[in-house]
Structure to design on (201 residues):
């Protein structure tokens, strides 16, 4: 199972990615989580990306692509992965294909959300900013910036993966369990279909 989840910030990619990773026994690779742990550890990479992350800007394609390529080369990703937050640009999507070599993705799932609802979610998330455990980039200014970055840089990925026959779009505003069931149904028809550990619930 080699899956990419696409969708704007606040679409619920993390929730679905975590669940899919557990269900398919493959790692959940969230580039946001990887970068946040580098920032926390104050590593060279963490220091390099900290200000961009705080500002809600994308970090450069080469840096993030080399982080992902080394992560994909680790043994636990040999049988698959759920990518959450990568690729975010067409250059990253090309770099991912390079890193995968002869292996192809099983599917690319896009969680679609109406823009109005998205801004409402963004505002709701920003309201809890500042509370214990809130992310440094969870405030309304940076969340809006991340949304704009998504619209500009990441939306073209839909057409990119559609052209490769990999894209599956689903309504990200549906209840979490309904989205999960829709994704499972799709995966049964596209390579995850014969996965021995994927019984119908
Ligand atoms: P996320 O948790 O996926 O929303 O990511 C948080 C932040 O990490 C983003 O706003 C970017 O600054 C950075 N980031 C994560 N993934 C990427 C990526 N694929 N390309 C560029 N920047 C990224």
């Amino acid at each position: 199972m080699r899956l990419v989840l696409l969708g704007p910030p606040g679409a619920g990619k993390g929730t679905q990615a975590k669940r899919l990773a557990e269900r398919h026994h493959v790692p959940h690779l969230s580039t946001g989580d990887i970068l946040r742990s580098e920032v926390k550890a104050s590593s060279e990479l963490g220091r390099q990306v900290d200000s961009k992350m705080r500002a809600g800007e994308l970090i450069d394609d080469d840096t993030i692509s080399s982080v992902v390529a080394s992560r994909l080369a680790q043994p636990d990703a040999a049988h698959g992965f759920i990518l959450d937050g990568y690729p975010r640009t067409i250059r990253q999507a090309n770099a991912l294909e390079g890193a995968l070599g002869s292996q192809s993705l099983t599917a690319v799932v896009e969680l679609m959300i109406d823009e109005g609802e998205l801004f409402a979610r963004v505002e709701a998330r920003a309201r809890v900013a500042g509370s214990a455990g809130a992310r440094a980039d969870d405030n309304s200014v940076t969340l809006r910036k991340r949304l704009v970055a998504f619209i500009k840089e990441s939306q073209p990925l839909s057409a990119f993966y559609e052209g490769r026959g990999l894209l599956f779009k689903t309504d990200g505003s549906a209840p979490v369990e309904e989205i999960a069931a829709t994704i499972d149904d799709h995966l049964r028809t596209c390579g995850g279909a014969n996965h021995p550990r994927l019984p119908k619930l």
